[in-house]
Give the backbone structure.
Amino acid sequence: MSEKKQKAKVIMVQGTMSNAGKSFLVAGLCRVFMQDGYRTAPFKSQNMALNSYITKDGLEIGRAQAMQAEAAGIEPTVEMNPILLKPTSNVGSQVIVNGEVLGNMKAMDYYANKKQLVPEIEKAFEKLSEEYDIIVIEGAGSPAEINLKENDIVNMGMARIAKAPVLLCGDIDRGGVFASLYGTVKLLEDEEQSMIKGLIINKFRGDVEILKPGLQMIEEKTGIPVVGVVPLTPLDIDDEDSLSDRLTHTGQKGGIDLAVIRLPHISNFTDFNVFERMDGVSLRYVGSAGELGTPDLIFLPGTKNTMDDLTWLRESGMETAVLRCAEQKVPVVGICGGYQMLGELLEDPDGVEHGGSMRGMGLLHTKTVFSRAKTRTQIQGRVNTVSICGEFAGREVQGYEIHMGRTEKTGDCQETIYLEDGRLDGLSNPEGTVFGTYLHGIFDYGDLAAMTVSRLMRRKGIDPKNWHFDPEEHKRREYDKLADLVRNSLDMKRIYEILEAGITC
């Protein structure tokens, strides 16, 4: 790395395993530091996730880093996540470097060559370090994966690059937290162990007094202080990937029943999180035809493999179940890959997915042709003022596009959304009951989500007059709750001391 003096202080959160709560702890620390007056940015050198985000300059990063930047009160940039891996199969991923597609690689090929990407990681980190006071780095998985340590660029390898003191967190809710903390520490080299300056017990339920003998013992055995015990607290903040508990929500709880089809390669399911936050609304993820029933609205989400997931939809009987609901005038909304499925035909002349052509669901008179060029952009638009869109007519919309393919109408469709660059995006059937768009995050802005629910309420005979929801205010409250949780659970005086002292390596 260059000898240029770094301005930013640095601290890193690693975990004993995946889903130990690293992303939320990083977001919480970002919020705390921001509240305390510091310009703070998140950083993750390498992320693997199907939930991604498009920055204002059209570059793709992990959704978790966008969420963490939002918690820090700053605009997400590509430097916060220079390498993103989007799984395409059990043994391969699309590799995205500095927000742009490098190509598809098998896991072994990527593992053999990833050291070559270290300069890109260093460059991204250095740029952030020049612009911010504090950088909070997130690790991935566990630093003790002994089969992967040699070429590590995301855990202790990243800590060395950034000279970052490490906080190691473990998930006590899963059980075995002391064994996982101790085992993780002891599988590391002596130098790496010395870089861990604090242990965190995450997702704790119960009386912390009962836990104290264990805390004392783990400190004695590792020689590392416990800097906090974080209670398991429900918070409504966007999740990163398919490990999300959201995907297990299968039961109807509210008056308005919204069903998301849980595709095998579902991506960007954060598109629908806003509906979970609404009183009187139930959002559930449906993985089988028998679970679908007759909801008030069906979402077909994005997917990393449209044609494969359409095959699953067909073979599982889910397509028949959705078509039956559509015949009963249940609204069906497709986003990105879900939009492509709604049409009559999908063609893949260049083998972007698996080649050939495939019949679509036939709910829209459209055709999709896949291409190798990837559309990545944040964009605004407006709902057609002369269509059947009712109260939606003329409304401004915004979101981001991440797709490989172009969809055009082949018959009678309503042109629904016109984008600011002159392109047509959204299309609906003549009755307005089936709608498709490429815009991820379309329901996150303005009152579009609330208007959608109000319309469903009126259709169901529920008066929405006294019902209101402000997504932006809700999001701010949740980030502040997270900051309060972190501030009250961690020894922030010790955290600041660790931050100030740094490490030498």
About this structure: The two ends are 13 Å apart (CA to CA).
